Amino acid sequence: MGGDRAPESVVQGAIDAAAHFHDDLEVVLVGDENAIGCYLPATEAQRLGIEIVHTSESIGMGESATTSYRKKRDSSIAVGIKLLGERRVDAFVSAGNTGAVVTASLLGLGRIKGVHRPAILTIVPTHHGQCLMLDVGANSDTKPAHLYQFAIMGRVYAQSVSGIPEPTIGLLNIGEESSKGSDLAQAAFKMLTECPGNLNFVGNVEGRDILKGTVDVVVCDGFTGNVILKFAESVVGMVVGAIRSELKRSLKFKLGALLLKPVFARVRSRLNYEEYGGAPLLGVDGVVVICHGSSSAKAIRNALRVAASGAREGIDAKIAEELSRELLREEVAG
Amino acid sequence: MGGDRAPESVVQGAIDAAAHFHDDLEVVLVGDENAIGCYLPATEAQRLGIEIVHTSESIGMGESATTSYRKKRDSSIAVGIKLLGERRVDAFVSAGNTGAVVTASLLGLGRIKGVHRPAILTIVPTHHGQCLMLDVGANSDTKPAHLYQFAIMGRVYAQSVSGIPEPTIGLLNIGEESSKGSDLAQAAFKMLTECPGNLNFVGNVEGRDILKGTVDVVVCDGFTGNVILKFAESVVGMVVGAIRSELKRSLKFKLGALLLKPVFARVRSRLNYEEYGGAPLLGVDGVVVICHGSSSAKAIRNALRVAASGAREGIDAKIAEELSRELLREEVAG
């Protein structure tokens, strides 16, 4: 029921996923059954194997996260997380209020043992591939030890879901030298450098390194990560808009644009964040994927695939394992 | 002597500025006279009215700011700031080590009375115009009161140099509601809302609002601002690179690209940060403009024009005036 285009695009994305990825996943739709019924007739749901769990409430995009979760126990977010907590589903996807999903996950599922703070990971398309960035908004204030754990969680995700055997990890900072940056970045740099495990930490990276693909995983605080993500999402539209406004100036340009139409479409799609599906919330005890509020059906479809991969790879169990190893190391060292 | 392409592009930019803007400014080049002589013969310098002040040292891009400024008193940065401090020049422009320029300005010129911290302001091209953003890197750690003053300094700059009579001001944050964001952003929001003067503060803005041009001035901490700026600088190249790699795929695309060549050039130039010249360092007692280390001659030329505007408008005096009014208000209130 969440998101700016719900339930239409959410239901349509679920239908597409059920149809395209029927070997990989089964969809359970959580929400108002009447609203869902407008876009998915019961016979069609049955044919696609889509189960519907009715809920009577929904949390608005502007509502306070904690209050709404506590008060609206029959909201689609609260019920979906409950189903996941009871392991009646293997993963939960939402395009609703991000704060409410994070709060519901923290309160309804709990953190993985040893995790200080969860983090939202996003995939950024780069020059030659993609780069994972976290945290992009689960936390508004971050401590050095959180950044250190984000590196561990990002590494686990890169290895098990993205299939990068030895991911390189960089710390987002405002200079490359170890002495550069905020107190937070300097302290995190120290922790990451002194890490006893094999984190493959390559040092500080700057804003320009994200799109260059200098490293596989970029670790940053949730404030900076969220600002960058929202800025990045607005960039392609800006460049394409600037090109489009120039095209009007001559017939020759219009012809050129006609010839290049497939190129623009491919570039837009390659740099389109929707293609990469939702953003996994790492560090909570269960597989949760958060989608943009304005997610299209395509974005929802891809997010469902991301969620299925996360569940199949047991990303939460792998993070738990890696962190318990980390805790053991600390005990031995301390 | 600073910057990755010094002294060639710096000297060339100075020559261009002296030739194009001779009614508006006079150039004094500070650096090694032999190195300068390679690109600007003495007769040519005389014809253009360019004065050369010889220095024997230069500060490298990777050197520690404070140490290098203190030790290298005959570096181009230290001497340039000294000339400005003695008011033998009206403004100082450098493409050298940013940290060293900030340190030299703080130690050599001092802060304007009442200013907690200086801030670097940059101009970001938007959909329909431009937006001013500060701080983009003078500070790695920022306090609420600093952000509050950045708003005042940004307003003064927008009014006197950019010619916006009543600039709107937004606080960069990770949500629009007043309750959203880091402790820093929330505290700054409160200060800006309770401000007794007429700041025209419109509230929080998000990463996507920067390019949308939602507000005239975006206030942010130097860490986030610097990361965004460097990310933004890498974006146009990324999009153009993605388009270019697609063009190779067919002859039709190559023809389309040929027809659209002027369009790409115009878009690149419109979104090119170099067009907007350097970034003024506000809050220090004198007009200082910082350029990107990789500045081209064109960027230097435009930075010299930005510096001349700042000096002509007496931006430092206007900031001093606005802050003394602010201090008076605080005294009356307190």
TrEMBL record, chains A, B:
<dbReference type="InterPro" id="IPR003664">
    <property type="entry name" value="FA_synthesis"/>
</dbReference>
<keyword id="KW-0444">Lipid biosynthesis</keyword>
<comment type="function">
    <text>Catalyzes the reversible formation of acyl-phosphate (acyl-PO(4)) from acyl-[acyl-carrier-protein] (acyl-ACP). This enzyme utilizes acyl-ACP as fatty acyl donor, but not acyl-CoA.</text>
</comment>
<dbReference type="Pfam" id="PF02504">
    <property type="entry name" value="FA_synthesis"/>
</dbReference>
<dbReference type="GO" id="GO:0043811">
    <property type="term" value="F:phosphate:acyl-[acyl carrier protein] acyltransferase activity"/>
</dbReference>
<protein>
    <recommendedName>
        <fullName>Phosphate acyltransferase</fullName>
        <ecNumber>2.3.1.274</ecNumber>
    </recommendedName>
</protein>
<dbReference type="GO" id="GO:0005737">
    <property type="term" value="C:cytoplasm"/>
</dbReference>
<comment type="pathway">
    <text>Lipid metabolism; phospholipid metabolism.</text>
</comment>
<dbReference type="GO" id="GO:0008654">
    <property type="term" value="P:phospholipid biosynthetic process"/>
</dbReference>
<keyword id="KW-0012">Acyltransferase</keyword>
<dbReference type="GO" id="GO:0006633">
    <property type="term" value="P:fatty acid biosynthetic process"/>
</dbReference>
<keyword id="KW-0808">Transferase</keyword>
<keyword id="KW-0963">Cytoplasm</keyword>
<comment type="similarity">
    <text>Belongs to the PlsX family.</text>
</comment>
<keyword id="KW-0443">Lipid metabolism</keyword>
<comment type="subunit">
    <text>Homodimer. Probably interacts with PlsY.</text>
</comment>
<dbReference type="InterPro" id="IPR012281">
    <property type="entry name" value="Phospholipid_synth_PlsX-like"/>
</dbReference>
<keyword id="KW-1208">Phospholipid metabolism</keyword>
<keyword id="KW-0594">Phospholipid biosynthesis</keyword>
